[in-house]
């Protein structure tokens, strides 16, 4: 279907594919992960389209070439959980692939043999390489990426580092995640900030016009999610970044549901901070996450907690480090952090464009199939939709339905007012079913899921 050969200059792959849309790359693009098509073009090109994409990292020959489509059989073989169940709870926590599990378990075994501190010293290079891998995933410098134990703590370290003053405005979305919203309320109580919610546009995503109007009045920070916990929508994060910079506001992006699901580049996003977890679309172990912070803003930020890893100190004073340590603590799970690195390598070997196009195809298929069923209403909004599919089932308790599905071997979740209060209340939902697909899921699984749903509906 297509041919592949190395193009030495950039260590990138050239490939041919029918019906590709190709855009010429500029120099800055060559810094990061590349998806390249040179057919018919004098310069390297980024290729997008349904049936192509080869992922290659600059300077290194990739370990795996996945070709224009994901080798689904192979990724499923490397995901043992797929044999036992249909896992449609990837927005909760996805199934880690074998190389990730082997990395974590292998490290723990070594720790037990060699000693925790001693092994950390021996594996220093691997730990450093993990930062480099995370940085490459989002187009950042490795010194701009701090490890965290989850997305909330990563986000907190950014948000609570800002010296908010009485009257400062933060702009957020209706779909804001529960933990972030509680932090806004706390900051309002303690420091007197103003919380303003940007309207949605007709599609249901954040309204850029309203954002601009609100930014004109002045805002300290724009703080939004890229993909909400309770909907399939993808907010226009790059356009939000552009506007935030134009009006001189800080920009904190909660990318918890988007990292690992779609390609991200902090330069294009123009965010000052980006927080995420490892366990969702990156397929890393639970208890992992990271924070990106733009180096230029570092100096002005004092984290809410500092330890002697994050700052140097004397008897009388302390100085927070001007690098990623500023937001970290000394102690962390080395095994999990390396697992996060392995998961990120795995995702990049497959290619974020490949992942994104397959996730979108699968979720589109799932939405279509669900829409055919009487008594089921798909509730996803937004111009661009992702792997999260939310729906209502008439006359059924969603939590009970979720439990029945789990007992039938299908993992789904329920999202409720607890998770995204403003949005759920406004739209009049107490809860919604949430089925979230990843690239290792299949259309056969969707068919089976739909059959089981119909069967459970009939037995009500
Ligand atoms: C949009 C969004 N932000 C933040 C979080 C919090 O992530 P964590 O549980 O890793 O702190 C979640 C978790 O579901 C989420 O969906």
Question: Would you write up a description of this structure?
Answer:
The chain is an alpha/beta fold. The protein has three domains: 4-69, no CATH class; 110-347, 3-Layer(aba) Sandwich (Aspartate Aminotransferase, domain 2), CATH 3.40.640; 353-458, Aspartate Aminotransferase, domain 1 (Alpha-Beta Complex). The protein has helices at residues 72-77, 81-84, 98-114, 116-122, 124-138, 151-159, 178-191, 208-216, 237-246, 266-269, 334-350, 352-371, 398-407, 421-426, 443-458, and strands spanning 4-7, 12-15, 21-24, 34-35, 45-48, 55-56, 86-87, 145-148, 169-173, 194-198, 221-225, 250-254, 273-277, 289-293, 311-313, 318-320, 376-378, 388-393, 410-411, 413-416, 431-436. The chain has a seven-stranded mixed sheet with strand order 8-14-13-12-11-9-10, sandwiched between helices. It has a four-stranded antiparallel sheet with strand order 17-18-21-20, with helices on one face. It has a two-stranded antiparallel ribbon with strand order 1-2. Strand 12 (250-254), helix 10 and strand 13 (273-277) form a beta-alpha-beta unit. Helix 8 (208-216) packs parallel to helix 9 (237-246) and helix 12 (352-371) packs parallel to helix 15. The radius of gyration is 22 Å and the shape is globular. The model is unreliable at 1-68 (pLDDT under 50). Pyridoxal-5'-phosphate binds at residues 150-152, 177, 179, 225, 228-229, 254, 256-257, 277, 289.
């Amino acid at each position: 279907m297509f041919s592949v050969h190395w193009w030495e200059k950039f260590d990138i792959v050239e490939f041919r594919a029918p019906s590709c849309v190709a855009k010429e790359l500029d120099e800055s693009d060559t810094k990061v992960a590349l998806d390249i098509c040179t057919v018919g073009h004098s310069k390297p090109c980024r290729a997008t389209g349904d049936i192509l994409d080869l992922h290659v990292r600059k300077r290194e020959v990739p370990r795996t070439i996945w070709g224009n489509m994901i080798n689904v059989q192979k990724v499923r073989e490397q995901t043992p959980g797929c044999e036992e169940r249909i896992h449609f709870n990837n927005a909760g926590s996805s199934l880690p692939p074998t190389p990730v599990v082997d990395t974590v378990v292998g490290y723990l075994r070594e720790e037990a043999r060699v000693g925790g501190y001693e092994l950390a010293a021996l594996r220093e290079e691997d730990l450093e390489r993990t930062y480099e891998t995370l940085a490459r995933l989002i187009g950042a410098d490795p010194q701009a990426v701090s490890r965290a134990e989850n997305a909330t703590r990563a986000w907190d370290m950014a948000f609570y580092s800002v010296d908010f003053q009485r009257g400062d405005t933060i702009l957020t979305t209706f779909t804001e995640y529960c933990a972030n919203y509680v932090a806004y309320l706390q900051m309002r109580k303690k420091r007197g900030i103003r919380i303003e919610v940007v309207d949605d546009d007709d599609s249901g995503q954040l309204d850029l016009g309203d954002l601009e109007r609100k930014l004109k009045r002045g805002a300290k920070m724009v703080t939004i999610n890229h993909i909400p916990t309770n909907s399939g929508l993808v907010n226009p994060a790059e356009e939000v970044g552009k506007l935030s910079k134009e009006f001189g506001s800080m920009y904190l992006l909660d990318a918890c549901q988007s990292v690992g699901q779609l390609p991200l580049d902090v330069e294009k996003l123009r965010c000052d901070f980006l927080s995420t977890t490892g366990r969702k679309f990156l397929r890393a172990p639970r208890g992992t996450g990271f924070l990106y912070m733009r180096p230029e803003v570092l100096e002005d930020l004092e984290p809410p907690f500092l330890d002697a890893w994050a700052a140097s100190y004397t008897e009388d004073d302390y100085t927070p480090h001007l690098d990623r340590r500023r937001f970290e603590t000394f102690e962390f799970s080395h095994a999990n952090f390396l697992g996060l690195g392995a998961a990120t390598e795995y995702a990049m070997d497959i290619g974020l464009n490949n992942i994104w196009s397959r996730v979108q195809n699968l979720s589109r298929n799932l939405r279509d199939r669900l829409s055919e069923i009487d008594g089921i209403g798909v509730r996803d909004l937004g111009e661009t939709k992702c792997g999260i599919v939310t729906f209502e089932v008439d006359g059924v308790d969603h939590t009970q339905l979720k439990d029945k599905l789990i007992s039938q071997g299908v993992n789904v979740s329920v999202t409720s007012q607890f998770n995204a209060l403003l949005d759920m209340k406004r739209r009049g939902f107490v809860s919604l079913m949430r089925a979230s697909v990843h690239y290792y899921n299949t259309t056969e699984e969707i068919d089976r899921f739909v059959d089981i749903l119909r069967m459970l509906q009939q037995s009500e």
